[in-house]
């Protein structure tokens, strides 16, 4: 067959398959024709979009399957060409074979490895690695032949394998076997463990003598990629205790692979403790890779960036000899009140340890080596860079798959401590950040450091350097504190030295993680001020991502552990002192913001005394970017002249953080901030509208919080009520109502509902009646929304309004809300049901308050039918999930408290009462969460307050007392014990406790609870121990006050048997009352404390009640006298031990 007929450039792919099918092995020209056809297929450009779109997956599978059937293993050169074709098709077309074709092709190559000569194995393994990429789970049947004791991969991946290309191909194939595809299972054991051992052994093995440097670099890259795939597979728990240490040591070594001046000797294992005996001293001997990467000897390297400027500023810095760099090394301690930035942002200060410049350049003069030598060294540096980058990517995967608590033990190996004096600096992640010439490697190191810092707040909370005494050793807290200071210092050096926008973004993100996890309240002040001052110039950076990350960092500064005194002081500084750094003319032209608009163009941007951050965020949201503008553009701003949405959204989030943490500093601009929100709500972008609504919500929440915590008589410390009323009047007459009706964006509606629920109650009642009705009507209407988020938010907002003064007296609104809440309790969404249960609890609370404090209009309007409906809904909700149940039982207790005598006589109420009590009892005895059981005990106590309930005679009463008695004795949670003891003290008369056996059960349970009061499963429960003992003693005295003669025998027995125990608890109860009265603290954690006078009065009341019983017939007087004598002795001991004064 003529070879020219294979060279049609537009031949359809299916034609190749047809020609392949026409070939027969018996044809004398079979080998030649097959060879030419394979050459033609290999020469096709499959990356071309037109070619790629014209090829069908079925045609590719059929062609490869047919080719594998035609090519015998004896024709090894054809086997290799088929391997090249497989690699090219899979790589360029990105196709996925069907299971049958994939299995046939894989079987063909596995058999080829066992049959063909070894010189073909490298290419076959490479093709096999492409076939198994992401398909390791479907490759299980072939694994024994590859990973067995004499398997191909086992032999070729061993360090003893002399052929480095074969070894690279084997490691590459194993790496792809460990790669898992979405929706598929990963490689199973024991093959995963074999792969891990092979990868680790490969990374630890030195370069064989005579091996090519580029090939060895490729081997390390493949092993690192395989280890990364292994770690990405499943959650890794090191079986061998040293595996993690060996892996971390190897990753640390490879982080510096090929860098100039890095030591050869590094520890082979890291231990989870900063133990000096495992530290290897830095050797002056440099690595072989470093020598190879330095062909030009010790000639000067060309500096990266503004070289002349760096040299000039360096000379100036030496002449000035200021203390700025010293402040950097000390962690930024300085005078916060100075308006001049104490940290220089000039390149001359980018020094770390002597005169070594950060990020040395690899570029050198072309005359230093020939073109061939230069090309080789450039390629070698690229390969070494990929190894460093791969080790960092592997480290990042390790952080994600290993328990973070294990990694914290190796903190000192990767995060530097205080700068060493007189010795070489320690090698850490920050060494890579400051000295690696590749921006990709620097960014990878920053990502690893960010991952380590993320979620480290609990670990870093041990750091402290405030008032630390001088000791003979350095404590762990002091070491950790110095590490945090060095992190701040080094990251700020990296911030000032970085020129790559992508890496600069990672530096700022890493600073944000550091700020959010550092315990600044335990460290010397001064760490935040340098970060604050130096990040300000980057909010004007030309790169959008840098501007966004800078705003994120500013948001972290004002939200982390707010309010911070240091940040508060910085916010109080005028804008020109805090934020307006002096720039050169060139830097000023790079500003996106018009300086004139900052000073005089806007209603808020030109305010005197406004903090820099508030002004910046407002201008980012509302003002145009700097650039040439026509007069017409100034009147009608084009959208492309404004900041891009990500920057504006981040600025709005910073404003929200600022409002939440430092509202007292910006409350003077409350109405202006509403205008910012209104501006956002008028935009077309739903995200902008959403963040504008959230800003309004934060403002409303901050006002409520301020009125709750600040004494209203001190009018200078909170927003005047008239201003709050004006604020909400503007909000409710503005674009917020449009957002509430925007059904196309339910998330916006949800946020608008949350904003309505953040109105100050005192301000709401002062709004016009029309505005009040608008809010209530809109919320009632939104409860019928089809979207569960909107419905949940509106139902919750109704629960907030129900408690407002004045609104709770609106009978019609309360009835409408009740019907809406009952309907929402039957919703399919658990979130809606949970919010409805919470609102139902608030509704019943409001009804009880109105019945006791206002008029009986609401009680008259609360028909038996509606009450019956509410009780049934509460019972049903009490059987729901815990998040619904906790408020459902609270509402049920309130409803039982509301029952009237005539309602109990109506049909259905008695059975409903039995059912409700049974639900509450079952909840107390269940294994539900603490909050649910606490609310169930509270509900029973609330129901016991209703005098019309047959508490002493009903069948459910015995079960209720038994459940509470069991909870007060044996519940692991002390708060549940406290509330159950309070419920047992609720009945006001002896008849409500039932017969003498039932009373004796309650009395015995309280005494037993006192004996068990020091027993608790969780140490944290002991903070409620005093409150529990006080409540138990209070319940004991209440029982003594209402007891009857038939109860004295039980009481006398416990007093006699446990006199010393009861004596100590009762005396402590009275003494604690004196302490509480002296300190003015009437509530001790559990809010059960009473003043000393009240406690002594309760004791004397119990003695008086017992004296009356002692006047009864003679058979009862002996018991009463014994108890009276005991109580009088308690009073005498109290008078002897009570504190003076």
TrEMBL record:
Basic residues bias: start-end ranges: 297-307
Sequence ranges assigned to domain DUF4042 in this UniProt record: 386-567
SUPFAM superfamilies (alphabetical): ARM repeat
Keyword Repeat: yes
Stored Gene3D superfamilies: Leucine-rich Repeat Variant (1.25.10.10)
Composition bias, Basic and acidic residues: 308-342
Keywords in alphabetical order: Repeat
Pfam families: DUF4042 (PF13251), HEAT (PF02985)
Residue ranges, annotated region (Disordered): 288-352
Name of the protein in question: HEAT repeat-containing protein 6
Higher taxonomy: Eukaryota, Metazoa, Chordata, Craniata, Vertebrata
């Amino acid at each position: 067959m003529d070879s020219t007929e294979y060279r049609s450039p537009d031949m359809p792919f299916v034609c190749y398959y047809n020609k392949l099918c026409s070939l027969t092995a018996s044809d004398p020209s079979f080998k030649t024709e097959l060879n030419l056809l394979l050459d033609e297929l290999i020469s096709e450009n499959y990356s071309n979009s037109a070619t790629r779109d014209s090829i069908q997956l079925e045609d590719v599978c059929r062609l490869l399957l047919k080719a594998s059937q035609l090519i015998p293993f004896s024709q090894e050169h054809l086997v290799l060409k088929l391997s090249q074709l497989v690699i090219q098709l899979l790589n360029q077309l990105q196709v996925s074979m069907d299971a049958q074709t994939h299995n046939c092709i894989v079987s063909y190559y596995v058999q080829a490895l066992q049959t063909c000569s070894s010189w073909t194995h490298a290419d076959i393994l490479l093709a096999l690695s492409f076939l198994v990429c992401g398909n390791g789970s479907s490759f299980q049947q072939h694994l024994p032949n590859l990973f067995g004791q004499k398997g191909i991969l086992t032999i070729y991946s061993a360090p003893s394998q002399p052929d480095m290309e074969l070894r690279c191909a084997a490691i590459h194939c194993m790496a792809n076997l460990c790669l898992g595809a979405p929706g598929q299972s990963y490689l199973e054991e024991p093959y995963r463990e074999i792969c891990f051992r092979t990868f680790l052994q490969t990374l630890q093995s030195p370069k064989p003598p005579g091996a090519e440097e580029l090939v060895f670099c490729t081997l390390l890259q493949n092993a690192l990629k395989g280890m990364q795939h292994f770690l990405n597979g499943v959650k890794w728990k090191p079986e061998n205790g040293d595996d993690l240490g060996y892996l971390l040591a190897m990753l640390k070594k490879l982080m510096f692979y090929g860098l100039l001046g890095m030591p050869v000797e590094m520890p082979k294992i890291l231990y989870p403790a900063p133990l000096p005996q495992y530290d290897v001293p830095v050797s002056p001997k440099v690595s072989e890779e470093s020598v190879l990467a330095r062909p030009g000897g010790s000639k000067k390297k060309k500096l990266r960036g503004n070289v002349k400027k760096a040299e000039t500023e360096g000379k100036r810095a030496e002449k000035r000899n200021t203390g700025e760099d010293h402040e950097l090394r000390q962690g930024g301690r300085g005078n916060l009140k100075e308006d001049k930035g104490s940290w220089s942002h000039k390149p001359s200060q980018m020094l770390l340890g002597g005169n070594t410049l950060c990020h040395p350049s690899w570029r050198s003069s072309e005359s230093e080596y020939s073109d061939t030598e230069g090309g080789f060294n450039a390629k070698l540096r690229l390969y070494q860079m990929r190894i460093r980058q791969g080790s960092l990517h592997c480290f990042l995967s390790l952080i994600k798959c290993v328990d973070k608590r294990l990694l914290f033990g190796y903190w000192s190996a990767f995060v530097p401590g205080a700068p060493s004096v007189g010795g070489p600096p320690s090698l850490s992640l920050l060494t890579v950040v400051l000295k690696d010439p590749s921006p990709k490697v620097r960014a990878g190191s920053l990502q690893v450091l960010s991952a380590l810092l993320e979620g480290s707040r609990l670990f870093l909370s041990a750091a402290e350097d405030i008032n630390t005494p001088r000791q003979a050793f350095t404590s762990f807290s002091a070491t950790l504190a110095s590490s945090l200071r060095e992190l701040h210092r080094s990251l700020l050096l990296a911030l000032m030295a970085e020129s790559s926008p992508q890496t600069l973004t990672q530096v700022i993100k890493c600073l944000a993680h550091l700020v959010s996890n550092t315990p600044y309240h335990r460290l010397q002040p001064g760490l935040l001020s340098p970060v604050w001052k130096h990040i300000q110039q980057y909010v004007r950076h030309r790169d959008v991502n840098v501007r966004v990350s800078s705003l994120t960092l500013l948001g972290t500064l004002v939200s982390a552990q707010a309010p911070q005194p240091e940040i508060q002081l910085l916010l109080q500084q005028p804008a020109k002192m805090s934020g307006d750094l002096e720039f050169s003319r060139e830097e000023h032209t790079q500003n996106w913001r018009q300086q004139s608009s900052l000073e005089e163009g806007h209603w808020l941007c030109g305010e005197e005394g406004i903090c820099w951050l508030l002004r910046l965020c407002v201008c980012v949201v509302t003002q145009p970017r700097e650039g040439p503008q026509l007069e017409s553009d100034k009147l009608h701003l084009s959208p492309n002249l404004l900041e891009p949405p990500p920057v504006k959204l981040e600025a709005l989030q910073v404003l929200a953080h600022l409002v939440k943490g430092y509202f007292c500093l910006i409350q003077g601009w409350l109405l202006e901030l509403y205008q910012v929100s209104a501006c956002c709500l008028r935009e077309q972008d739903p995200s902008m509208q959403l963040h504008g609504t959230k800003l309004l919500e934060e403002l409303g929440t901050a006002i409520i919080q301020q009125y709750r915590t600040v004494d209203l008589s001190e009018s200078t410390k909170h927003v005047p009520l008239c201003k709050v009323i004006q604020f909400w009047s503007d909000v409710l007459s503005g674009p917020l109502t449009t957002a509430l009706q925007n059904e196309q964006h339910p998330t916006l509606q949800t946020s608008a509902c949350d904003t309505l629920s953040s109105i100050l109650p005192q301000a709401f009642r002062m709004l016009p009646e029309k505005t009040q009705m608008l809010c209530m009507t809109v919320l009632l209407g939104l409860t019928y929304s089809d979207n569960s988020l909107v419905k949940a938010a509106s139902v919750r907002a109704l629960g907030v309004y129900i408690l407002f003064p004045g609104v709770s007296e609106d009978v019609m609104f309360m009835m409408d809300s009740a019907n809406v809440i009952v309907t929402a309790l039957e919703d399919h969404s658990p979130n809606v049901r949970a919010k409805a249960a919470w609102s139902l609890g608030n509704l019943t609370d409001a009804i009880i308050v109105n019945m006791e404090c206002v008029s009986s209009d609401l009680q008259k309007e609360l028909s038996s039918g509606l009450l019956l409906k509410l009780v049934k809904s509460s019972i049903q909700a009490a059987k729901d999930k815990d998040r619904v149940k906790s408020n459902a039982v609270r509402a049920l207790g309130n409803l039982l408290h509301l029952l009237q005598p005539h309602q109990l006589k109506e049909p259905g109420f008695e059975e409903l009462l039995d059912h409700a009590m049974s639900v509450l009892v079952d909840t107390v005895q269940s294994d539900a969460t603490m909050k649910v059981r606490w609310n169930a005990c509270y509900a029973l106590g609330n129901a016991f307050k209703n005098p019309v309930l047959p508490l002493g005679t009903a069948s459910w009463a015995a079960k209720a007392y038994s459940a509470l008695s069991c909870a007060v004795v044996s519940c692991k949670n002390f708060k549940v014990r406290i509330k159950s003891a309070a419920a047992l003290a609720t009945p006001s008369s002896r008849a409500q406790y039932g017969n003498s056996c039932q009373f004796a059960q309650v009395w015995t349970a309280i005494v037993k609870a006192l004996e068990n009061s020091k027993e608790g499963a969780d140490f944290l429960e002991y903070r409620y121990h005093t409150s529990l003992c006080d409540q138990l003693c209070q319940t004991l005295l209440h029982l003594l006050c209402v007891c009857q003669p038939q109860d004295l025998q039980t009481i006398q027995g416990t007093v006699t048997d446990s006199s010393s125990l009861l004596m100590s608890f009762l005396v402590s109860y009275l003494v604690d009352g004196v302490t509480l009265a002296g300190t003015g603290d009437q509530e001790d954690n559990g809010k059960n404390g009473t003043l000393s006078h009240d406690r002594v009065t309760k004791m004397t009341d119990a003695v008086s009640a017992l004296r009356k019983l002692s006047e009864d017939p003679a058979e009862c007087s002996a018991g009463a006298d014994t108890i009276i004598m005991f109580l009088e002795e308690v009073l005498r001991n109290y008078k002897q031990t009570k504190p003076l004064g």
